[in-house]
Amino acid sequence: MNGTIFLIIGLVIVAILVIWAISAYNSMVRKKNYIREAWSGIDNQLKRKANIIPNLVDTIRMQTKFESDIIDKIAASRAGMLSKDRAEAISASDTVTRMLPSIMALSENYPQLGTNQSYLKLMEDVKDVEDKVAYARTRYNMCVIDFNNTITVFPGSIIAGMFRFAPEKVFEIEEKERNYADNLRISEL
């Protein structure tokens, strides 16, 4: 009789561990999917931003004659925003964001550009995309932190190790970018 009780208790403990392992694994898979979905929000905004760039470049080219360096850098960044590599896409987007003051300076140097309705609309679209990228980036980072905590904290780390779940990279803004973002007056765009 005692042996039977120990066998039943042992089977219950094994069943509980198996159910916990399945639950932990499914939770990690769900969180990984949340990361993919959150990245798609960033990716959609980067594609939207990349679609604005050619029109912005064309508008600037029509109104200015000697600013090809800025225009070429903006155009080159567009391809990076469409990259499948997350770090490359974010880096390209950040490059364009850093160039916004130069673009705004063009409108000061070329008054006809500053009054061009297409240019003003495109700059408003850029502002809107920048706001949405910032929101999507925050959401993405929240999903990544949740996932990383799940796979690195005991006992979840055991299941994560067994199924080779690796930590995801959080997209942090570099200190230089943070200072720029803190000082940028988006309303001036």
Please provide a written account of the structure.
By secondary structure, the protein is mainly α. It has one domain: LemA-like domain (de novo design (two linked rop proteins)). Helix content is 83%, strand content 0%. The protein is built from seven helices and no strands. The protein has helices spanning 2-63, 68-81, 86-109, 111-114, 117-152, 156-162, 175-183. α1 packs antiparallel against α2 and α1 runs parallel beside α3. Residues 184-189 have low confidence and may be disordered.
What layout of secondary structure does this protein have?
Elements: H1 2-63, H2 68-81, H3 86-109, H4 111-114, H5 117-152, H6 156-162, H7 175-183
Pfam families: LemA
Subcellular location: Membrane
Protein name: LemA protein
Write down how many β-strands occur, each being a DSSP E stretch of 2 or more residues: 0
Biggest sheet layout:
none
CATH class: Mainly Alpha
Task: Work out the radius of gyration.
Answer: 25 Å
Return the domain count: 1
Give the terminus-to-terminus CA distance: 81 Å
Fraction in helix: over 70%
Beta-strand share of residues:
under 5%
Any idea what the CATH architecture is?
Up-down Bundle
Structural class, by secondary structure, is mainly alpha
Tally of helical segments = 7
CATH superfamily: LemA-like domain
The CATH topology is what? de novo design (two linked rop proteins)
Low-confidence stretches at least 5 residues in length (pLDDT < 50)?
184-189
Overall average pLDDT: 85
Q: Any idea what the shape is?
A: rod-shaped
Q: Please write the string of helix (H) and strand (E) elements.
A: HHHHHHH
Membrane topology: Single-pass membrane protein
Pfam family, one: LemA
GO cellular component, one term: membrane
Keywords: Membrane, Transmembrane, Transmembrane helix
